[in-house]
Write a structure and sequence with these properties.
The protein has helices at about 40-50, 70-75, 90-100, 105-115, 130-145, 160-175, 210-215, 255-265, 270-275, and strands at about 1-10, 20-25, 30-35, 55-60, 65, 75-80, 150, 180-185, 195-200, 205-210, 220-225, 230-235, 240-245. The protein is α/β, with parallel strands linked by helices. It is globular. It binds adenosine-5'-triphosphate (ATP). InterPro entries: AAA+_ATPase, ABC_transporter-like_ATP-bd, ABC_Transporter_VariousFunc, P-loop_NTPase.
Length: about 280
């Protein structure tokens, strides 16, 4: 679905944002793209959807260079940017004017999503609150039914019930034919939704791993004191949060926040442990 090889990109020559960046995304997965503020998540997504152009390397989407922005590719991908701008028309008018660009657009699904999100369908879009506008666009993005759906910080501006609703609707709209990538720096918003975690750090992808596999390989715990078995530890008022190897125990919950902190803190023991085995669908570390 998305094949990025040896991507080089920077807004200025002096400050490259990506160097030797590789990433593969496949159908049937919901990817969570995590990275610190300014790591380049939005920029990476823009390269994928043909709104930023690689300086070196290749970025292919649906078998075509993303930068070509071929109509057939654009009809089968939807990109929802972090900042949204809606026109001063009703939802119905917006749908009438734009749904035609997406051959698989599902009008019934849109009605259902708008009801679930409690977005008034008759209102002029610019008269809606920012959160309501965002929910309208998320509903539209899901209903467009494209093979590739790229959502940049979709939960920004959503209240707590809407975030839960967002996770529910996304899970409903997902099929094995689709590939979803969602960026966030609010790691907890994606827990229980994504199946694969992608971490962007230091100009490259430092992790692209299946959550089930991570749960089999790692355990996350709070202990009175970290010992030498910890691959990574972080002090807390209750003791220490630790990541340890899971030696054949039951897979538990992956603490995405702790894992993220470890990866961007460049925890060498964890990096080395994870690199010992090739994950199923992308080189890690
Ligand atoms: N159009 C642009 N022109 C010049 N620099 C830019 C442009 N867009 C982004 N940048 C810079 O590129 C870097 C990465 O920005 P980007 O928005 O991709 O990061 P991000 O990981 O999405 O951040 P955040 O989590 O804060 O949204 C930042 O230093 C930013 O200032």
């Amino acid at each position: 679905m998305v094949h990025i090889r040896n991507l080089h990109f920077g807004y200025s020559k002096k400050r490259p944002l990506f160097q030797h960046l590789d990433l593969t995304l496949e159908r049937g997965h919901i990817y969570g793209l995590l990275g610190k503020n300014g790591a380049g998540k939005s920029t990476l997504l823009k390269n994928m959807v043909g709104l930023a152009f690689p300086e070196g390397g290749t970025c292919e989407v649906l078998g075509q260079p993303a930068a070509k922005r071929l109509p057939a590719v654009l009809a089968d991908l939807f990109f929802l940017p972090e900042e949204i701008y809606v026109p001063a028309v009703t939802a119905a008018k917006f749908v009438e004017q734009t749904a035609g660009f997406y051959p698989k657009f599902d009008h019934e699904a849109l009605t259902h999503y708008l009801v679930e999100f409690e977005v008034p369908a008759q209102a002029v879009l610019t008269a809606l609150s920012f959160g309501q506008q965002k929910k309208f666009m998320i509903a539209f993005a899901l209903a467009a039914n494209t093979s590739l759906l790229v959502l940049d910080e979709p939960t920004n501006g959503l209240d707590i019930p809407s975030k839960a609703q967002f996770r529910k609707l996304l899970a409903t709209a997902f099929t094995e034919e689709r590939c979803l990538i969602i960026s966030t720096h609010q790691v907890r918003d994606l827990e229980s939704l994504i199946d694969t975690v992608v971490v962007l750090h230091g100009q490259r992808i430092v992790l692209n791993a299946d959550l089930g596999e991570l749960a089999e390989r790692l355990t996350f715990a709070t202990v009175p004191e970290a010992d030498e078995t910890a691959l990574y530890s972080e002090g807390s008022i209750r003791g220490a949060y630790v990541i340890r190897p899971n030696h054949g125990g039951m897979p538990g919950r992956v603490d995405l926040e702790l894992l993220f902190n470890a990866l961007v803190g460049e925890a060498p023991a964890l990096m080395s442990y994870l690199s010992q085995k090739q994950p199923t669908h992308e080189p890690v570390l």
